[in-house]
Structures are given as C-alpha cells and as structure tokens.
Amino acid sequence: MLMLAGIVVLHITTIILLLVAAIDNAWWVKDSVSADLWGKWELTNSNMWHYTNLKDYPEDYLQAVQATSVLACVFTILALFVFVAQLFTLPKGMRFTFTGILQIIACLCIMTGASIYTAKLHVNESSGGYGHCYILAWISFVLTFILALTYFILRKKKE
Amino acid sequence: MLTFLALTSVALLGIVPEQSQAIVIYTGWERHALVGSDIRLSCSFFSWRWTSEDVTFSWTYRPDGSRDAISIFHYTGGAAYLDNKGPFRDRLEFVGNPGRRDGSILLKNLELSDNGTFTCDAKNPPDIVGRPSSVRLLVFEKVPIQAGVITGAIIGVVLGLLLLIVVIYYLMRFLVARRVFSLSVSKHGKKKKEGSQQRQIKV
Asked: Which of A40, B102, B151, B177 has the lowest tally of Cβ within 10 angstroms?
C-alpha cells in the first residue's frame, strides 16, 4: 500500500517536472535573455521584456527537440492513467508491462530531446548557461527510467 | 405629459448648440502584425453633431520605450498630410473616409522598429473636447508559440489517446467475447480454442 502510494507520487512528480521542463522558459539563460524551446524573452533598454521567436537556431533540430519533449509529456501522462487502469484489470501475479513500455518510450523521448539540445544548439556561444528547465529535463529522464524499471519488475499482489 | 417632455427635450437641444460636447474616439487596443506586412490602423469617432467640413484627424507615434511622440499624419481642410521626413515616409497611406468619420491609415512594409503606440486624435468642430485614443502595435518576425497553446496541445493529445486506448480495449473485449477472434490468453484460452475448433469442423 505504501509502495503503491510512493510510486504514484513519484510518477506525478515526474509528470510535473516534465511539464515544467517543456513549457517554462529557461533552457538557456543569459543576463538579459531567457530562451526556451518555443520563444525567447529579451530585456530591452527600456526595462521591458519582449517575447520574440527563435531566430538563428537550426530549424530541424529545434523542431526535433520540441516534438520529443511534448511526446515525452504525453507518454508519461498516459502511463499514469494506464497504470491506474491496470491496477484494477490486471490478473494477479502479472507485471505492469504496458505501463512500463509507455514509460520507457517517454524516457527515450526526453533523452533524445535533451541530447539533441545539448549537442546541436548553443554550441558556439560563450556567455550564458543552461537554465533550470534544461536541468529538470535531465532529472526527469532519470526519474522516468527508474519508474519504467519499477513497472517492469513490479508484480501485482497475489491474494 | 408627452408634449411637455417633447418641449423640454427640444429646449435642451436648443441650449446645447452654444456649448461643445465631448467627442469619443475609437481605435483598437492592440494590433499584432508580421514583419513586412501591411496593417490598417482604424480610427473613428462618435459625436452628437453632424460631421463638419472642418473635421480633423491626426495620428502621432511614440516608439516603445521613448517618451516623445512624433506626429505622422494630419487631415484638415479636406486634405491629408502624410509623414515625409520621419520613420514612416513613403510607407503611410490614408485609407479613411472623413465624411463617414473614418480616419484610418495604412502602414506598409512593417519593420521591427515600428513597435510602439499610435494615438489618434479627431476633432469635429465645435466638438473638440475629447480624449485621444491609442492603439499599441506589436510587430513579430514570426508569431511565436504561446505556452497556453503547448499545454492545450499536450492535454488534447493525452485525452485523445486515452479515448482511443479505452475504445480499442473494449472493442477487443467485445470481439473476443463474440468469438470473432480466438485469442489464447492463459486461463481463457481453452474455451476459445474449443470454439474455434468447432467452427473449423462445421466449415
């Protein structure tokens, strides 16, 4: 019972982290610029933040990162729903394979997205650093991996 | 009673022509446009009087972050005067109809430096008391995606896929129960295999 609650809480935490990483705007941060996967916030001379689109980014790589991060969110939310459904419908003693499959797909997606972002974007820029959303993306990769393993190993109670 | 009211209203209207009344000016609140496109900034007014021949429209522009506004357009005495020295030279066109209280201008070939506030001031003598109305222009290179759209897309896809999974699950159960498919699932397998054997014998 406790383990079940712990797994559900961990799964919900992973979902929240993934959503924040995909939607919030701090993948690459400089003094007056805060960029994410969808747009860039620039602080102008008159102390106003302007939201612009991302220019000078390699188009295809950016779209790949956008797609994989959205897919990772979708698959991990689906995995939660399927887990709850399988809790009721799975025969006793069986493993939660469908949930585990969805979760491992989410893990692969976010890993691909974050790797492409690291390798291909911002390679030549000297100033600025990675923001909190980038870090959250990698943390959620670890969490989804652990959860996927848990679902593959866990068995439904026999009694 | 009715005649009394009619007389009072006529008397009031008679007093009014000696004073000037407020004129109400309407423009948009905010306009979005892409770089290189054209945009029409509309301006119209409401006034209790007929549109006089001395009606004037004037547009001023204040760039984002600047405190000074420059005048870019003026219509008076039946003629329109466009900006020919400022940032909008050769890019401005008057597309309004002063007779119909429309003082709209057309900005062509927008640039990123055109971000700012445009103020329209209209006067319909003797109605000159009014507050000029401003419209904010935002110029984008490519309209960026907003966070709400992404969240909505994620939620929509999740719900759609959930619905699909539920439908497929119940469809499979329905089809298996009707013995259309013969699935060999551990405990239920024996019955299903017998059912399929029976059908083979009949055929």
From this structure: B177
